[in-house]
Amino acid sequence: MSGKIYVRFWGVRGSIATPGKDTVKYGGNTSCVEVRCGNEIIILDAGTGIRELGNKLLMEKPQHINILFSHFHYDHIEGFPFFSPIFNRNFSVTLIGKPKLEGTLEQLFGTQLMFPYFPLALKELDADIAFHEVDRENFIRRGGISIRLEHLNHPGGCIGYRIEYRGKSFVYATDTEHSDQLDVSLLKLASHADVLVYDSNFTDDEYAGKVGTSRSGWGHSTWTHGVKIARTAKVKKLILFHHDPSHDDRFIDELEKEARKEFRESYAAFEGLEIAI
Ligand SMILES: [Zn+2]
Ligand SMILES: [Zn+2]
């Protein structure tokens, strides 16, 4: 593979998977993004989109896979037990994230993979599973890649990641709520990024409660705030991500159109979207 960062979206939806005829274009799977830098495979979150990605990886030669978790709400982990490389002894998988609660990452996944939630236990997986707990000041370095972390504003905590490789940068900042002030640590994380993936779960009207109840305090943001961050941080490309389950294809089409009026390089994420940086 070339010296580029290769990105593919496998799940772009927030909160819960939303299959059906009205979500065919953007897809109904929850958060999962594949990033490749040289031979390194980095997966961001294990929402339901990771199932199909796992099937693709099984067709390749056995290898090491890193999964970075933004946080551990269901929509970001529920695909993990259906990620087929974990049932293949020729693969090794490192789970990377910061458990917010007391306890380790291993305990956290041990709870997900246990009776009565799942028929198999974590220790019964065939792949070699490792755990890497990260904290605010951590940089992760792997094969010429550096990954920087910042805390985002989300109930129970969430981490945003900036992946840099050969002078290119990709930022994953989902599940974060804005405030009146621009988030300084997010601006730092996104500064001059080639691509910023941003939590665009709500419209301004939804967030303010002009449509239904106010979503303030729910831990999510809007595309308009994404545009502010993208402009201020001088981001090249803004990807609207974590679509609300109630937003169907037509709704997201409109939302993307509106966003492009404000920031030309805005794209609503869809399953199958590929970007080479
Ligand atoms: Zn989420
Ligand atoms: Zn969340």
List the keywords.
277 residues; alpha/beta; Metallo-beta-lactamase, Chain A; seven-stranded mixed sheet; 7 helices; 28% strand; binds zinc ion
Number of domain units = 1
Strand element count: 14
The molecules bound to the chains, other than polymers, are: zinc ion
Largest β-sheet summary? 7 strands, mixed
Query: What is the 3D shape?
Result: globular
Tell me what portion of residues adopts beta-strand conformation.
Answer: 25-35%
Q: How far is the N terminus from the C terminus?
A: 13 Å
The strands making up the biggest β-sheet line up spatially as 6-5-4-3-2-1-14
Total of helices = 7
How do you describe this structure in short?
The protein is of the alpha/beta class and about 280 residues long. About 20% of the residues lie in helices and about 30% in strands.
